[in-house]
Amino acid sequence: MRTLIVFAIVGFAAQLVDGALGMAYGVTSTSLLLVAGINPATASASVHLAEVGTTLASGAAHWRFGNVDWKLVLKLGVPGAVGAFLGATALSALSTESAAPYMAGILLALGVYILLRFSIRPPRVSAARRSPHGARFLSPLGVVAGFVDASGGGGWGPVATPALLGAGRTAPRTVVGSVDTSEFLVAAAASVGFLIGLGHEVLDPATIGGLLIGGVLAAPLAAWLVTKIPAPVLGTAVGGIIILTNARVVLRTFDAGTVTTVAVYVTVVALWVAAISVAVARLRRTRAEEAEQEPVGAGT
What pTM was estimated for this model as a whole? Predict the structure, then answer.
C-alpha cells in the first residue's frame, strides 16, 4: 500500500507538469523510477502502460477546455505510434547494464534542453487554434519523438512540443493539448512493444497502478493550469530536477569519485538557480512591456 501511494504521488506530480507544459510525464516518472532502482526497460514499460490511462484522461480534459486540434492529433500521433513501437522493441533487446546509461543520457539531454528552452529562448506565441502543418513536417517529427519516448523512457513532449511551439504558428494551449492527446496512441503502441519484448511478468502492478491513479487525478487540474501557469518558470524548474536525477546515474556509470560528484552537483544547482532567475526576470520584463502597450482604460 505504501508503494502504491508513493508512486501515485510521483504520477500526480509528473502529470501536473506534463499537462501544464505538454511534456515531461515520462521523463520525470522514469527518472524517479531509475533512482528507485527499477531497471530501464521495466521503468519505461511501467510508465507507458500507466500513460495509456493518464493520456486518455488528459486528452479528455484538454478536449473539455477546447485545447485539442484533432487533425494535428492524428497526423502526429499515428507516426508517433510507429516510432514508439520500434523504440520499445529496441530497448527491450538491451541488457540492463547497457540500457541504464543509455536511458540516463537521453533523459539528461532532454533535461538540459527543457531547462535552456524555457529559460533562455521561450517558445513564440501564436493565437491560431488550428495547426497549419502538414504530414511532411508532422510525420518525421512523430516517428522521431515516438522512438525517443519509448527507448529513452520519455521524450514525446520534449521533442514534439518545442518543435511545434518553435514554429510559432499554433496557439500554445492547442499545441500542449494536442500533443498530450496524441500521446495516447504513442503510449498504447509502446506498451504493446514492451509486452511483446518483456512479457507481463516483469511488470509491477503497484508501480503501474500508482502512476496511473496519480496521473488521472492530476489531469483535470493540469489542463486548467495550462491556461494560467507561467510556463518559462515551471519548465526551467522541471528541467533542473531532471538533470539532477539523471546526473546521478551517469556519474555512477563512470565511477565518479566523491569530489567529482559534489562538484558536478554544485555546478548543476548553481546553473539551475541562475536559469530560474533568468526565466523570472524575462517573464517580469515581458509582462511590464505588455502593460506599457496596453491602451489606457482597457482594463475598465
Answer: 0.68
Handedness of CA 127, 129, 133, 137 (dihedral sign): positive
Return the C-alpha cell found at 188.
498504447
pLDDT tens, position by position, 208-265: 888 888 877 876 776 666 666 666 776 777 777 778 777 877 787 777 788 888 898 8
Distances (CA, A) of 19 to 42, 158, 195, 231: 24, 12, 26, 11
- Residues ≥6 apart with Cβ < 8 Å to 127: 171
Sequence length of the chain is: 300
The backbone torsions φ and ψ at residue 92, rounded to the nearest 5 degrees and listed phi first, read: -65, -30
Residue 124: Cβ within 10 Å count: 11
Distance between CA atoms of residues 50 and 54, nearest Å: 6
Helix %, strand %, coil % for the chain, to 5?
Answer: 80, 0, 20
Which amino acid, one-letter code, is at 161? Answer: T
Contact yes or no for 68/59 (Cβ under 8 A): yes
Q: Give the integer Cα–Cα distance in Å for 293 and 18.
A: 32
